[in-house]
Amino acid sequence: MSSDARSIRASYPLGFHKPDKSVFRTPKGISREVVEAISYYKNEPEWMRRFRLQALMMFEQKMMPTWGADLSGINFDDIYYYVSPADRKFRTWDEVPEEIKDTYEKIGIPEAERAYLAGVGAQYDSEVVYHSLKRQWEEQGVIFVDTDTAVQKYPDLVREYFGTVIPISDNKFAALNSAVWSGGSFVYVPKGVHVEIPLQAYFRINAANMGQFERTLIIADEGSYVHYVEGCTAPIYTTDSLHAAVVEIVVKKGARVRYTTMQNWSSNVYNLVTKRMLIEEDGFGEWIDGNLGSKVTMKYPSVILNGRGAKGEILSLAFAGKGQHQDAGGKAIHLAPDTTSTITSKSVSLQGGRSSYRGMVKIINGAKGSKSFVRCDALLLDEISRSDTYPTNIVNEQDVTLGHEASVSKVGEQQLFYLMSRGLSEAQATSLIVNGFIEPIVKELPLEYAAELNQLINLSMEGAIG
Amino acid sequence: MKDMLEIKNLHVSTADGTKDILHGVSLVIKKGEKHAIMGPNGGGKSTLAQVLMGHPGYTVTKGSIILNGTDITDMPPDQRAKLGLFLGFQYPVEVAGVNFANFLRMCVNEQKAEGEKKVSPIAFRNQLAEQAKKLGFSDELAKRSLNQDFSGGEKKKAEILQLAMLKPQFAILDEPDSGLDVDALRYIANALNSLEHPMGLLLITHYQRILAYVKPDFVHVVKGGKIVASGGPELAEKVEQSGYENLA
User: Fold this and answer.
1) Which of B57, B78, B145 sits opposite A423 (nearest CB)?
2) What is the pLDDT of residue B174?
3) What pLDDT does A120 receive?
4) Within a domain: residue A344?
5) Minimum distance, in Å, between the CA of residue B235 and any CA atom of chain A
6) Cβ A420–B98 below 8 Å, yes or no?
7) Tens digits of residue pLDDT in A39-71
8) Half-sphere exposure (CA, 13 Å, Cβ side) for A133?
9) What angle, 0 to 180 degrees and rounded to 10, lies between the N-to-C axes of helices A46-61 and A3-10?
10) What mean pLDDT comes out for the span B151-167?
11) What is the pLDDT of residue B246?
């Protein structure tokens, strides 16, 4: 960092500077001061500070999306944009709603993890496992740290890629994240390195990753492979009402990245996430994206196929219950010849929930021989729930193959009767049908997620049908 | 009464009340007996099968169904199943993504009494493979999704396999022979005959040809929502020769 930058910071006249390094929180609302304070508190290099400030300007200029879900309930002035990890106010176990505790119990979340998921503070002690894995990764030259640490330790690498896949101007919430981000993961996999064990497990319970505005950047260098897994099927209880994350992934020539997310935010949360992969020649990028909870989710994992033979695959799963709107899908942008994309979306709506598939396939002129296939299936469990499909295809090249299939089905009387005639209750029968419907996606999930998801669906069917 | 399925003066209409289908059907099936119901299309055979199992699309307007002394007329299908009733479907329903063996194990466990030991996945797979072999079926069916992409014959076989594993006290088989060629028909019939557990059977068929293999003790003809004739196996032969026309 230049001495200039340091002196600017030292003299920075903010009223709410940190009284102690370990305790810091910006006041409610967003402003230049708030953004400056975050950067100052984190002792960031000048380029990151500028990046944040530019992003703030962009956030202020950008309109709220006029399409998609209803976001009128978001009040930007009523949000804390930064709370240092040491200052997070942990609630007591008694304050956690019974419903959430009950779910943990029923889906069999280990005791030690429950408190953490419910925000009761206790840091789950997975250090032992983590350290041995960490040593393995380090020997391979893999970098796997939280993004704040990466900015300090690997500034050149971060700076080269940060904001290149998702520019600050992309959308209002990506701009907001860019201005106030904290936490998230930074992963770098060197050329030819295959990370055999998915980067996950302990992450399920890592504080830095569950922030409101986390920022993840993954770079898979040529010929490398990594599977990154985040989130969990168990409900995350939070009183923060806005979650606006950004995930950027660079898949270099011949590399392969698989990114699996399973999110189950509590039903007060607006979950607005921008995630995108830039895939180079012969690279392969996969998104597996599951959305179970929240009040509103808007999330469309994207693949930009930027080199000949690049391949992208998106599996999206949405589960919309009472009072929820899951607006999810995927985007594939074909910029080079012989590129391939597949988008598979499965949504389940019940108890008045609403799910929308929103997707885009764009093939530019010159991307000859490209192929894209989109399949979206919706399952409605009752008459009051809703499902919509909003596909967009923009194809400016003749020599392409494009397929789209969509289906909406209802859990039918005949199916229920058949299953019940074998002795299964209505709730069991419905769970079977739902689990069967999402099976093509669930089979791609890590085993423990799949098992929890299954339990969770059984639970919600019991609740829905009684 | 124990070991008995009693159908008493059953009157049935569609659930929306727009159409009356059965007009007073009475029938008693004892455990160990084989009854065949024959009759022309649209006469009410399949409706009877569905109503006995509790299909929500129909309403019993009069009469009752008594299973082993318990009135099951208003029970949902799962409770009837737990009391020992089984319906083999004419058109088994496809359920995507649900593994046949897992599904069937769930059903078998569901029918076990409270506190009774549940069968483990591995033990069940073995039992299922053994049963499939006994019936002369390939247990390859067990690995697939429930009825999905099964051929007509495979669906019928899978119903019999379910019957064999669930071991109900009374089974209603709704046209287990429809859509099958002669070889497949003989195959299904042989499988049915090889079932060892004692039960009462109500076999619904449009044609008498399956009755050459599965010999009924009693034959009934259902026409116009009523049983118009009852008798022994000779009734099936009579129908064979002179059709349903001459039966009142």
Assistant:
1) B78
2) 95
3) 54
4) no
5) 31
6) no
7) 999 999 999 999 999 999 999 999 999 888 999
8) 17
9) 60
10) 92
11) 73
Residues found in chain B: 248
DSSP tally for chain A: helices H, then strands E: 12, 18
The residue out of A265, A299, A333 marking a domain boundary is A299
A159-167 average pLDDT score: 97
For residue A132, what pLDDT is reported? 65
Residue A41 forms part of a structural domain? yes
Name chain A contacts of B106, Cβ cutoff 8 Å: 424, 428, 432
Torsion of CA B75, B77, B82, B88, to 10 degrees: 140
Q: Can you give the pLDDT at residue A360?
A: 96
How far lies A299's CA from each of A330, A376, B229, B245, in Å?
Answer: 8, 15, 65, 65
* Chain B neighbors of A453, CB-CB under 8 A: none
Residue B153 corresponds to which tokens in the numbers above? 């014959």
Q: Can you tell me the distance from the alpha carbon of A77 to that of A30, in angstroms, rounded to the nearest whole number?
A: 7
Q: What is the mean pLDDT of residues B175-197?
A: 87
Question: Structure tokens of A23?
Answer: 């305790």
Query: Could you tell me if A252 and A124 lie in one domain?
Result: yes
Within a 10 A sphere around the Cβ of A102, how many other Cβ atoms? 11
pLDDT of residue A413: 87
Tokens of A54: 């530019």
Q: A367-388 burial by CB neighbour count: b if 16+ within 10 A, else e?
A: bbbbbbbbbbbbbbbeeebebe
Amino acid at residue number B64? S
How confident is the model at residue A232, as a pLDDT?
65
B103:A433 CB<8 A: no
Alpha carbon separation from A401 to A75, A102, A315, A316, A329 (Å, rounded): 44, 49, 20, 22, 20
CB contact under 8 A, B89 and A418: yes
In chain A, the number of structural domains is 2
User: Which residues in chain B have their CB less than 8 angstroms from residue A422's CB?
Assistant: 78, 81, 103-104, 107, 110, 162, 166
In a domain, A334, yes or no: no
The torsion defined by the Cα of A360, A249, A69 and A331, in degrees rounded to 10, comes to 10
Look at strands A296-299 and A225-231 and give their pairing.
unpaired
Mean pLDDT for the stretch of residues A98-112: 69
Rounded distance, CA A359 to CA A343, Å? Answer: 8
Chain B interface disruption, residue of A417, A431, A454, most B CBs within 10 A? A417
Q: The pTM is what?
A: 0.83
| SS3 label, residue A461 | helix
Share of chain B above pLDDT 70, in %: 100
In a domain, A218, yes or no: yes
Closest Cα of chain B to A422: distance in Å?
A: 6
Strand order in the sheet with B34-38: B85-88, B170-174, B200-204, B34-38, B218-223, B226-231
**Domain interval for residue A134:** 3-299
**Residue A27, both tokens:** 């006041």
Contacts of B96 in chain A (CB under 8 A): 436-437, 439
Indicate the range of A16-20, A183-187, B41-45 predicted with least confidence.
A16-20
Better-scored residue on pLDDT, A456 or A107 = A456
Angle between helices B182-193 and B152-166 in degrees, nearest 10 = 0
Cα distance from N-terminal residue to C-terminal residue, chain B: 31
Cα distance between residue B9 and residue A44, in whole Å = 85
Least confident of A275-289, A398-412, A445-459: A445-459
Q: Are residues A295 and A152 in the same domain?
A: yes
Q: What are the pLDDT digits (tens) for B7-41?
A: 999 999 999 989 999 999 999 999 999 999 999 88
What is the reported pLDDT for B20?
A: 95
Last residue of a domain, one of A281, A299, A317: A299
Average pLDDT of chain B to the nearest whole number:
92
Amino acid at A54: Q
Q: Coil, helix or strand for A76?
A: helix
